[in-house]
Amino acid sequence: MDFVLPHVLAAPMAGGPSTPELVDAVSFGFLAFGTCSVDDARAQLARTTGDYGVNLFSEQTEKPEDTDVESIAAELGVEVPTADLTCGYPAKFAAVLDAIDAGRGPRVVSTMFGCFPETDIQALHERGVEAWVNVTNPEDALTATQRGADKLVVQGPNAGGHRGTWSITAEPDWRSLPELFAAVREVTDLPLIAAGGVRTSSDIAQLIEFGAVAVMCGSAFLLADEAGTSEFNRELLAAGGSSTSTRAFSGRYARGLETTFTREHPDMPAIYPYLNAMLKPRRSDLDFAYCLVGEPAAQLHAGSAKGIEQRLLGTLEV
Questions:
Q1: Is the pLDDT score of 9 beyond 90?
Q2: C-alpha neighbours within 13 Å on the C-beta side of residue 64
Q3: Which of 47, 81, 142, 219 has CA atoms 20 to 30 A from the CA of 186?
Q4: Is-cis flag, bond preceding 273, omega within 30?
Q5: What single string gives the DSSP state of each residue in the chain?
Q6: Closest by CA position to 92, among listed 126, 55, 147
Q7: How, if at all, do strands 8-10 and 243-246 pair?
Q8: Alpha-carbon distance 109 to 177, whole Å?
Q9: Closest CA to 277 of 67, 19, 87
């Protein structure tokens, strides 16, 4: 890349919080295309300027057990919904390439829940764009390195939103971010970005000193003026509460404010993305709220995204 990567990056937050306005307001941020439509992805690409990144959910290679899906649907009294296990990856990746070819695309494209195919990494490299991969264990870090990734985002267990495991059935690595970061460093020489539970400038400074080339912050920007966080979730975040990492939000591990439903379903089977679709009509009910946030769920600040970025940087240079 022919630009300097800042110490703080605005993480992709799928489902609404990440907006072109938020991305444009900070030094470097990511659009989140995991759950949006292809048309919405194209519209966001057209509205974003400057240097930025795009995050995609990888295609899901595992199909949840039919009996698990049917059992939860029956409990909730709903029909089994249709689900796109590709997460729209092929069409969204094509849209990103179109934007790059048109001269208004991202500098970085990253993946969540898996790694790019080698052909897609090659397509990005041919256009001068970096391919980053989100990893949560050393094994995936090694695979991404061998496949040709440029940088790795090491996501710790305190991260808000979905944990980036490559398998819906895998039990996440619960080691702390520093421990996980050190374990990943043992298997790769690629530059590493740290992510998960970062709230203060001292957190940033410690991770940079530890060897991170940058730190990715998501929850810290949830209350930004430019964020697309719903008013309902802003009120929940202002009220505070405990976060939990559970499959009971969507069918794969994600961290958010605990609810009656998450407390009553500690052993939710791996049925992503079906559960999210089943619960979507009930999200305005406090018992089924979907407010994903990292730990600690407190220490969030409202205001401009640029102001939040400066607070996180402290004495560090942008």
A1: yes
A2: 26
A3: 219
A4: yes
A5: --SPPPSEEE---TTTT--HHHHHHSSSBEEE-SSS-HHHHHHHHHH--SS-EEEEEPPP--PPPHHHHHHHHHHHT-PPPP--TTTTHHHHHHHHHHHHHTT---SEEEEESS---HHHHHHHHHTT-EEEEEESSHHHHHHHHHHT-SEEEEE-TT-SEE---SSSSPPPP-S-HHHHHHHHHTT--S-EEEESS--SHHHHHHHHHHT-SEEEESGGGTTBTTS---HHHHHHHHH---EEEETTTTSS-EEEE--HHHHH-TT----TTHHHHHHGGGTTSGGG---B--SSS-----B-HHHHHHHHHTTS--
A6: 55
A7: unpaired
A8: 23
A9: 87
Residue 318 pLDDT grade (very low, low, confident, very high; cuts 50, 70, 90): very low
β-bridge partners, 119: none
Q: Do the strands 192-195 and 30-32 form a parallel or antiparallel pair, or are they unpaired?
A: unpaired
> d(Cα 174, Cα 25) in Å, to the nearest integer?
33
- Bridge-based pairing state of the strands 130-135 and 108-112: parallel
- Alpha-carbon distance 33 to 258, whole Å? 25
- Token pair listed for 243: 């976060």
Which phi-psi region, left, alpha or beta, contains residue 173 (left: φ > 0; alpha: ψ -120 to 50)?
beta
Whether the CB-CB separation of 180 and 141 falls below 8 Å is answered with no
Average pLDDT of the residues in 259-266: 97
Structural tokens at position 251: 């069918």
Q: Is the pLDDT of residue 24 over 90?
A: yes
Q: Is the per-residue pLDDT at 1 higher than 60?
A: no
Instruction: Extract the tokens encoding 257.
Output: 């404010």
